[in-house]
Amino acid sequence: MAIEEKRAWILLVVAVCGYTTYLVLVFGLAASYVPTMLWAIGGGIVAGIVLHIVASVLTPGADGRVDQRDREIGRFGEHVGQSFVVLGGVGALGLALAGAAHFWIANAIYLAFVLSAVLGSTAKVVAYRRGFQPW
To answer: pLDDT digits over 85-118, tens only?
Structure first.
């Protein structure tokens, strides 16, 4: 498995686990959403960095080089994932214009970022596993 594919898996797992933990804490325990969201985002960033370092150390021959295929798959995954960032921004704008509470606006934006990471990473993993044909 290429190091770039491992990185896509790591981002996918960290995004899903982090958001699930956030939802359980906020809706299950009635915790305040602001510090919980900040800790979930910060924890996800730290976990992603640590897991990327561990994957790089444990992968033989992972010297940081990427070939043309890796770059195209990375670009493809990022383009696919960005659709949710746009949808989340439009959704948050709509909520703000409708006068929704800060809780719903912040959660719409957070959900958009998580869905972007999940969809982009899934597209990368599928491209690595099933093949990638640039258009």
So the answer is: 999 999 999 999 999 999 999 999 999 999 999 9
Report pLDDT for 35: 92
Secondary structure (H, E, C), the chain: CCHHHHHHHHHHHHHHHHHHHHHHHHHHCCCCHHHHHHHHHHHHHHHHHHHHHHHHHHCCCCCCCCCHHHHHHHHHHHHHHHHHHHHHHHHHHHHHHCCCCHHHHHHHHHHHHHHHHHHHHHHHHHHHHHCCCCC
pLDDT at residue number 62: 62
- Burial of 124 per CB tally in 10 Å (0-12, 13-18, 19+): buried
Integer distance in angstroms from the first to the last C-alpha of the chain?
24
How far apart, in whole angstroms, are the C-alpha atoms of residue 112 and residue 4? 23
